[in-house]
């Protein structure tokens, strides 16, 4: 990879021109010059759209929403990045919804949620994030989450720390669950058996007791709040790889942990996650989660029908 050429095209420069620097090192240096990474421009498109009438469409159900803005922003991000990295792979929420395969290979892959919190966007509930994760050999390397109404640019790069608007992020050192705030979501599955599981889990965690349960309606932002040290953990079954690929790096680079809801290793495509400030809090949350099945992101298409 001719790094200097790519640097030049990104309009930024690496601290070192040593070709062993990983591509994500380049992207981190660019994320400081955020005008070069399409995240901020994408956020501007969303903010502008918030001023106008929104044309709401449905995906898997009447509560799984999508808008033209989701589709336009995803296309804008794809085009911007593909121009510079034509050999890379892409997984985008709206492309998958339109029938593109959701298969993660070892190839450098951009995993994108153009509008995380579409329901919030439709209702003007002020938590809407652009999430761009960069994954190499199936390992998240680099992530940017732009909470565009708040104008908070969260970035994280493996081995190089996590930042919000350039300031370093650090999870809390809280190990007492009784002194914690936990974030979670109701999800978009309204089947009684799933809703019962979600509520029974929330009830058990609330009655530990914890200081509070919260959720802002976007996984990427919930996880960025864990990385920011303002909540201790986030968990959910039903999210997708594009909701969490970027924020998983931000959480771990802020000193936190990510794992499966059964306490097993983090599995990007499993549609299940616990993100926490440390293993003590994560393990305590795992104990209370009533697990229900969710088709993997990389399951064969016919299985997802
Ligand atoms: O479809 P969207 O808006 O991109 O994202 C879906 C989502 O907001 O819904 C869940 C709430 O249950 C979140 O965890 C997740 O990020
Ligand atoms: Mg989305």
UniProtKB/TrEMBL annotation:
<feature type="binding site">
    <location>
        <position position="113"/>
    </location>
    <ligand>
        <name>Mg(2+) 1</name>
    </ligand>
</feature>
<dbReference type="GO" id="GO:0008934">
    <property type="term" value="F:inositol monophosphate 1-phosphatase activity"/>
</dbReference>
<dbReference type="Pfam" id="PF00459">
    <property type="entry name" value="Inositol_P"/>
</dbReference>
<dbReference type="InterPro" id="IPR020550">
    <property type="entry name" value="Inositol_monophosphatase_CS"/>
</dbReference>
<keyword id="KW-0963">Cytoplasm</keyword>
<dbReference type="GO" id="GO:0046872">
    <property type="term" value="F:metal ion binding"/>
</dbReference>
<protein>
    <recommendedName>
        <fullName>Inositol-1-monophosphatase</fullName>
        <ecNumber>3.1.3.25</ecNumber>
    </recommendedName>
</protein>
<feature type="binding site">
    <location>
        <position position="116"/>
    </location>
    <ligand>
        <name>Mg(2+) 1</name>
    </ligand>
</feature>
<dbReference type="InterPro" id="IPR020583">
    <property type="entry name" value="Inositol_monoP_metal-BS"/>
</dbReference>
<comment type="pathway">
    <text>Polyol metabolism; myo-inositol biosynthesis; myo-inositol from D-glucose 6-phosphate: step 2/2.</text>
</comment>
<keyword id="KW-0479">Metal-binding</keyword>
<feature type="binding site">
    <location>
        <position position="93"/>
    </location>
    <ligand>
        <name>Mg(2+) 2</name>
    </ligand>
</feature>
<feature type="binding site">
    <location>
        <position position="243"/>
    </location>
    <ligand>
        <name>Mg(2+) 1</name>
    </ligand>
</feature>
<dbReference type="InterPro" id="IPR000760">
    <property type="entry name" value="Inositol_monophosphatase-like"/>
</dbReference>
<comment type="similarity">
    <text>Belongs to the inositol monophosphatase superfamily.</text>
</comment>
<dbReference type="InterPro" id="IPR033942">
    <property type="entry name" value="IMPase"/>
</dbReference>
<keyword id="KW-0460">Magnesium</keyword>
<dbReference type="GO" id="GO:0046854">
    <property type="term" value="P:phosphatidylinositol phosphate biosynthetic process"/>
</dbReference>
<dbReference type="InterPro" id="IPR020552">
    <property type="entry name" value="Inositol_monoPase_Li-sen"/>
</dbReference>
<dbReference type="GO" id="GO:0006020">
    <property type="term" value="P:inositol metabolic process"/>
</dbReference>
<comment type="subunit">
    <text>Homodimer.</text>
</comment>
<dbReference type="GO" id="GO:0005737">
    <property type="term" value="C:cytoplasm"/>
</dbReference>
<keyword id="KW-0378">Hydrolase</keyword>
<keyword id="KW-0452">Lithium</keyword>
<dbReference type="GO" id="GO:0007165">
    <property type="term" value="P:signal transduction"/>
</dbReference>
């Amino acid at each position: 990879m001719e790094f200097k050429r790519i640097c030049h095209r990104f309009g930024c420069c690496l601290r070192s021109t040593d070709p062993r620097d990983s591509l994500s090192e380049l992207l981190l240096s660019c994320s400081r010059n955020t005008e070069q990474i399409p995240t901020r421009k994408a956020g501007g498109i969303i903010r502008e759209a918030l001023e106008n009438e929104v044309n709401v469409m449905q995906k898997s159900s009447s509560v799984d929403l999508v808008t033209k803005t989701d589709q336009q922003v995803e296309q804008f991000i794809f085009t911007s990045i593909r121009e510079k990295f034509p050999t890379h792979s892409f997984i985008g929420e709206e492309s998958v919804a339109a029938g593109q395969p959701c298969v993660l290979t070892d190839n450098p892959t951009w995993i994108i949620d153009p509008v995380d919190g579409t329901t919030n966007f439709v209702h003007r509930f002020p938590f809407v994030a652009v999430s761009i994760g960069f994954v190499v050999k199936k390992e998240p390397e680099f992530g940017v989450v732009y909470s565009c109404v708040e104008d908070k640019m969260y970035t994280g790069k493996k081995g190089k720390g996590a930042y919000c608007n350039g300031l370093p992020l650090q999870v809390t050192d809280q190990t007492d669950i009784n002194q914690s705030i936990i974030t979670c979501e109701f999800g978009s599955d309204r089947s009684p058996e799933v809703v019962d599981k979600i509520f029974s889990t929330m009830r058990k965690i609330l009655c530990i007791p914890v200081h509070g349960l919260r959720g802002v309606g976007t996984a990427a932002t919930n996880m960025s709040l864990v990385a920011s040290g303002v909540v201790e953990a986030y968990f959910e079954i039903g999210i997708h790889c594009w909701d969490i690929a970027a924020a998983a790096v931000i959480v771990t680079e802020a000193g936190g942990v990510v794992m499966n809801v059964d306490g097993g290793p983090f599995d990007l495509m499993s549609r299940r996650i616990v993100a926490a400030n440390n293993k003590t809090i994560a393990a305590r949350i795992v104990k209370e989660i009533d697990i229900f099945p969710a088709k993997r992101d990389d399951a064969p298409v016919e299985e997802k029908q």
